[in-house]
Design brief:
With 96 residues, the protein is of the alpha+beta class. It has 3 helices and 2 strands, in the order ββααα. It has one domain (13-91). A two-stranded antiparallel sheet has the order 1-2. InterPro entries: SARA-like_SBD (IPR024608), SARA_Smad-bd_sf (IPR037145), Znf_FYVE_PHD (IPR011011), Znf_RING/FYVE/PHD (IPR013083).
């Protein structure tokens, strides 16, 4: 929250009172601001964007699709082995 977002990464805008204009906001802030607006008007018509089955993250915005939960925490309850990661050979460092 409170992050600077470029126009390539962020397509969401919201009218911010302190700016008296619309500005780019991240998904989390947009959801919070929409919930505040809807709850103050007495209706909650917008579904939770992140939980909507039709929601697709913006491909240029890692804030929309990156998990804040580490992979080890994600699999802690289901599988005792850490997740396997496939890395292309060209990415690996070579000796010499």
């Amino acid at each position: 929250m409170g992050e600077v977002l470029c126009s390539k990464c962020c397509h969401l805008r919201f009218r911010l009172q302190y700016l008296e204009a619309e500005a780019r906001v991240c998904n989390k802030c947009h959801d919070i601001l929409n919930k505040d607006t809807n709850s103050s008007s007495g209706s909650d018509l917008s579904p939770d964007v992140g939980n909507s089955p039709s929601y697709r993250p913006h491909p240029n915005n890692p804030l929309e699709y990156c998990s804040t939960v580490s992979p080890l925490q994600q699999v802690a309850g289901s599988n005792p082995d850490p997740p396997a990661v496939m890395v292309p050979v060209g990415v690996l460092k070579r000796k010499g």
